[in-house]
Amino acid sequence: MTSIEATAQVANMYDTVLILDFGSQYSHLITRRVREAGVYCELLPCTQKISELKFKPKGIILSGSPFSITDEGAPHVDPEVFNLGVPILGICYGLQELARNLGGETSLAVKREYGFAELNLHPQADHHSHKLFQDVPTPTNVWMSHGDHLEKPPKDFVVIGSTTTSEYAAVAHKTLSIYGIQFHPEVTHSVDGAIVLRNFVVGICQCEANWTMSSFIDKELERIRTLVGPTGSVIGAVSGGVDSTVAAVLMKRAIGDRFHAVLVDNGVMRLNECQQVKQTLADSLGINLTVADASDLFLGRLKGVTDPEKKRKIIGNTFIEVFEAESHKIDEISRQNGLGAIEWLLQGTLYPDVIESISFKGPSATIKSHHNVGGLLEDMRLKLIEPLRELFKDEVRALGALLEIPEDLVWRHPFPGPGIAIRVLGEVTPSQVEIARRADHIYIDEIKKAGLYRQISQAYAALLPVRSVGVMGDQRTYEQVIALRAVETKDFMTADWFPMPVDVLKRISNRIINEVHGVNRVLYDVSSKPPSTIEFE
């Protein structure tokens, strides 16, 4: 089953809004805001052919873009979008794309508009356009980020909002539910932006606001049962993190004993990870768990590799190979017990993984391949099943709470599939892994003691590929450097660095330097995403 087909299954269960991505850094925020309004939506490339779409959307949103509409090679939408007969909202570049297709004119703005602007609304008497700005006061503060602007609206469009520098900051068709706005309602800087988006998806598109995790559970359980069938069995990729745990509990509820969980010890897991996972999943949650120790195999293949993408590909391929081998063993037992052949591989892929791993033309570049969606073997025997593929992290946590998974597990910080291998910058060796592992354990222990763990979305220690001079016990040292990372985020698509209290940093640094042999310097990362990513590699 392709990712588009999997997407279509969920999209056909709910009233769905299609967001077409022209490469804007804010596109994922549109998705978040629409879902926060209780409406399911999907983000697809702006080049998506409407004839190949597996579901009919209730409405379409055209995103912004880093391109100018006049650039050679600028991305453009399939013209069939305008023949679907559903409401359309163009945002920033999306407004200009509307004009391009419907007969308007755009040009470079005399004065580029970036930052806050005051939007004055111009309600039209007895006109449907008021629905877009219902309950929005005038004036209202909005966020602008554009160099092009609308010079002349298409025929039959009226002006419904303007700023001092944008005469056509908001326009609407006289009779059709087609709207264009120059500002970005998806960012929090647009004070009433969430209201505008809700007005569009609920009020104008007439979507039922029924996208909740409580509604998702029953529908997803039924979808899993339909996919797997009455006799098929699933082997589950589990790690003890919230994503794989929620996916495993869903699978167990859906197909019972036909679900087999496997934990692969890849040699780059956190301190005492395997023991803790076994206790949590097997003993506490009653999940049938097999632990496969493949640490030597993984570390052997990573020897001499320094490129982060190669690390991810190697780990992804080796991961699948190990699962293939384990599935053969479990398959025999399953057949003997009349539980059906192993046909499916469970993974806890999330929606941000999918977004970051696909090159949207237009035209976001692939930032990095994700373990759950990139680097998989082309001849993989097992079929993938990804019950969380359409969810953001906060939605997964809400789902975990509804499934009555222990709170400490639901709120556990994310841990990447490639593990400490991408937190050891440079070559991955057993000794380097041990340094990063012990530093990380101290770091997490101290932020928990300080009562900060739940305030931080993700924290970890990374081992940098540099050495520094130091003095310990009146002797010169030339040892390694640990970088501490902690971020705050809601959706893991954007993130701010966490303002760690100085006294906590002092304790963490002191412990790491004194307790982790081979480290004489500790740094704290104060980079946000973007431009940085949350992981170093």
Outline the structure in words.
The chain is an alpha/beta fold and 537 residues long. Helices cover 33% and strands 23% of the residues. It contains 14 helices and 18 strands. The chain has helices at residues 3-11, 27-36, 93-102, 193-204, 213-228, 242-255, 273-284, 295-302, 308-336, 351-357, 393-402, 407-410, 430-449, 502-515, and strands spanning 16-21, 40-45, 59-62, 88-91, 105-121, 140-152, 157-162, 170-173, 178-181, 233-237, 259-265, 289-293, 342-346, 383-385, 458-472, 475-488, 496-497, 519-524. A 9-stranded mixed β-sheet has the order 2-1-3-4-9-8-7-5-6, sandwiched between helices. Strand 16 (475-488) and strand 17 form a beta hairpin. Helix 5 (213-228) crosses helix 6 and helix 5 packs across helix 11 (393-402). The longest helix is centred in the middle third of the chain and has 29 residues, at 308-336.
Main sheet: strand order: 2-1-3-4-9-8-7-5-6
Structural class: alpha/beta
> Quick one: how many beta strands?
18
Proportion of residues in extended strands:
15-25%
Please bin the fraction of helical residues.
25-40%
**Secondary structure tally, helices:** 14
Low-confidence spans:
1-6, 359-377
Provide mean pLDDT, rounded. Answer: 88
Report on the biggest sheet. 9 strands, mixed
Using only C-alpha atoms, the radius of gyration works out to 25 Å
Globular, elongated, flat, extended or rod-shaped: what is the shape? globular
